[in-house]
Automatic annotation (TrEMBL):
GO terms for biological process: regulation of DNA-templated transcription. InterPro entries: Integrase-like_N, TACO1_YebC-like_2nd/3rd_dom, TACO1_YebC_N, Transcrip_reg_TACO1-like, Transcrip_reg_TACO1-like_dom3, Transcrip_reg_TACO1_YeeN, YebC-like. Belongs to the TACO1 family. YeeN subfamily. One of its GO terms (molecular function) is DNA binding. This is Probable transcriptional regulatory protein E6C60_2249. It comes from the Bacteria. The lineage of its organism: Bacteria, Bacillati, Bacillota, Bacilli, Bacillales. It is found in: Cytoplasm. It holds the Pfam family Transcrip_reg. PANTHER family: TRANSLATIONAL ACTIVATOR OF CYTOCHROME C OXIDASE 1. HAMAP family: Transcrip_reg_TACO1 (MF_00693), Transcrip_reg_TACO1_YeeN (MF_00918).
Length: 240
């Protein structure tokens, strides 16, 4: 089930840090989550998940506070959550999650990114059924056996626990996110390398070496779009 989560995150964070793009996207995501309920993570679970993710990406406190203040104040922007599905080179499957205040613009931009980079859009449901919504936590400082025992002591039956590059990764049901997080924090784990709800493919595909640059170009083009929050795919290759 492993996906080299830390390598992927570090690659994306390194690329995004150069443009501060990741901060702007988190600003929107935090604002939207806060507007769905109270702008307090203790009473708003969706907001708590977003803030935990922001922490793993080192989003500055000023960005977080600005988004929360906007949600508490007169911010009345309306965002729509949309999911697009499509295919890359050699039939690779791609899911694109967006938050947008202009649906027509976003649909056009996502379609254009697919068409210009060797992919094509699919209809709703054409790809998502091959992915599973999953809570993912990564941490250092604990062994695989220690984490396994922690989950047993907390009476939490997760999907899988693995070790990848000295990082222990827990894969759990999405509705177990807060339960797993609380058990880990009670055991002294306060820093996570990964803490998010993700879409994991049920099966992976490998691309011919000469198709990988085009696929990476497609993923980069999608991630570069202002309204795109997350891009998931089922291609397995060395992302370092």
């Amino acid at each position: 089930m492993g996906r080299k989560w830390n390598n992927i995150k570090e690659k994306k964070a390194s690329k995004d840090a150069n443009t501060s793009r990741i901060y702007a996207k988190f600003g929107v995501e935090i604002y939207v989550a806060a507007k769905k309920g109270e702008p307090d993570p203790e009473s708003n679970r969706a907001l708590k998940v977003v803030l935990e993710r922001a922490k793993t990406y080192n989003v500055p406190k000023a960005i977080i506070d600005r988004a929360l203040d906007k949600a508490k104040g007169s911010g009345e922007e309306t965002y729509t959550e949309l999911r697009y599905e499509g295919f890359g080179p050699n039939g690779a499957m791609v899911i694109v999650d967006t938050l947008t205040n202009n649906v027509n613009r976003t649909a056009s931009d996502v379609r254009s990114a697919f068409n210009k980079n060797g992919g094509n859009m699919g209809v709703s449901g054409s790809v998502a059924y091959m992915f599973d919504s999953t809570a993912v936590f990564g941490m250092t400082g604990k062994s695989l056996d220690e984490v396994f025992e922690l989950m047993m002591e907390a009476d939490i039956e997760v999907r899988d626990i693995v070790e990848e590059d000295d990082v222990v990764i827990i894969y759990a049901e999405p509705d177990q996110y807060h339960e797993v997080q609380e058990a880990l924090k009670q055991a002294g784990v306060t820093e996570f390398t990964v803490a998010e709800l993700s879409m994991l493919p049920q099966t992976y595909v490998s691309l011919p070496e000469d198709s990988i640059p085009q696929f990476e170009k497609l993923i980069d083009a999608l991630e570069d779009l202002e309204d795109v929050q997350q891009v998931y795919h089922n291609v397995e290759y060395d992302e370092e």
